[in-house]
Request: fold
Amino acid sequence: IALRISEEIMFERWQRGWTQAELARRAGVSERTVRDVESRLLKNRSGKPHSSTLRKLAEALGIERDDWWLL
Reply:
């Protein structure tokens, strides 16, 4: 699920024509965080991107999901 959300975040950012810096500003995270999530490098101990980071990015893009509990 986390990798799918990361891909959705990247796709939605591209669709809006936003840079990683723009998404980072709107989500309140660093540009490096966006870059790492998109390249799937930002990992927690279970090997998935941090769910709180994914939520911030998704909310900034207006992505609504009902499967957050799976993260």
Summary: The chain has a mean pLDDT of 82. Helices lie at 2-16, 20-27, 31-38, 51-61. The first helix runs from residue 2 to 16.
